[in-house]
Design goal:
The chain has 403 residues and is of the alpha/beta class. The chain has three domains: 143 residues, Globins (Globin-like); 98 residues, Elongation Factor Tu (Ef-tu), domain 3 (Beta Barrel); 126 residues, Rossmann fold (3-Layer(aba) Sandwich), CATH 3.40.50.80. Helices cover 43% and strands 18% of the residues. The protein is built from 13 helices and twelve strands. Strands 4-3-6-1-2-5 form a six-stranded antiparallel β-sheet, with helices on one face. The protein has a six-stranded parallel β-sheet with strand order 10-9-8-7-11-12, with helices on both faces. β8, α10 and β9 form a beta-alpha-beta unit. The longest helix is centred in the N-terminal third of the chain and has 31 residues. The two termini are 34 Å apart.
Length: 403
Amino acid sequence: MLNQKTIDIIKSTVPVLEEHGEKITTRFYQLMFGNHPELLNIFNHANQKQGRQQKALAGTVYAAAMYIDNLEAILPVVNQIAHKHRSLGIKPEHYPIVGKHLLLAIKDVLGDAATDEIIDAWAQAYGVIADAFIGVEAEMYDEAARQNGGWDGFRSFVVAQKVVESDVITSFYLKPEDNRGIADFIPGQYISIKLEIKGEKFTHIRQYSLSDAPGKEYYRISVKREAGTPNPDGMVSNYLHNDVNEGDILKISAPAGDFILDLKKDTPVVLLSGGVGLTPMMSMLKTVAEFQPERSVTFIHAAQNGNVHALREEVEELAALQQVNSYFFYDSPTDEDRLNNNFDVEGYVTREWLKENVSLKDTDFYFCGPLPFMKAINNSLKELGVNEERIHFEFFGPKASLV
């Protein structure tokens, strides 16, 4: 427990963290990777290069300082990050390394303003925060390993099928190499894939949402090829598309993630996706259709056009069921799309369309996709009076702001 003096000192640094947070976290990663390059085997290089991880960490540190006397208030954030950590293989021995370099970064950026008293207070606070993460993650590691078909760390899976779904998205069906059972999952969760790419010094780990219903003998992920190898996100997705074939072995973690469909409810659910954000939505849609046949579900997907629209046939098959409605939005339909009536609405999903076509009462909304799409959906739902408790979303990558 922290004493009141330490709490007061930490809270006094909140304005400083708000102003200098990203400078501190940027310097933190520079220092830590300089002294411990082996940690680049765990951290997402793309998020580092794009600055997304630095921004997300700054937000977490800021929130921790704000609520240092009531860490339960940020438990949802801790839980979300802990899922990521478990799927990446972050262990207790990593936390002292992180703490040391975070304090060094604070001192480096703030200079004389970071007094010994402030550094000491943050050292104590970090110890409490780290213990919270370690405790939560220990339970997650134990649960992942002990569940039926579960395992610890990374397990070898065979690419049983590789299916091209569109010009940019390909699905991979993964079966365990040892032919033993696999862990169940909740629709919306993801797995991590650990890759050793020829010519790369460090391993690369990426997380991909599971795109099929649970209860199968395989996991399915549907991966978008990110345009251009200079794009740091493109290295792994292009490798999967170009170099991974049926029969190859991939190392994957047990399913993780807290963006999940509440299967205890039977109220209507609306699933909204943009681009490759449809992957967790497909898992949710197929699960509702299979396991909750009386539950009303509306599936809304936005894509550029039919060339990049993946898994449409699966949705169309399910839309034949009485309780399933589906709508496809294309913002740049091709002539072929128009000829074949491949879409329902030309343009974007708007607040006005949602108001006219979707039941808002007692409905839960789940959405995922590019950040502009998510901001637009989130704002529309709030403007329509949808309660925050019924709005659920997932970021692909570090947490960002939808404001």
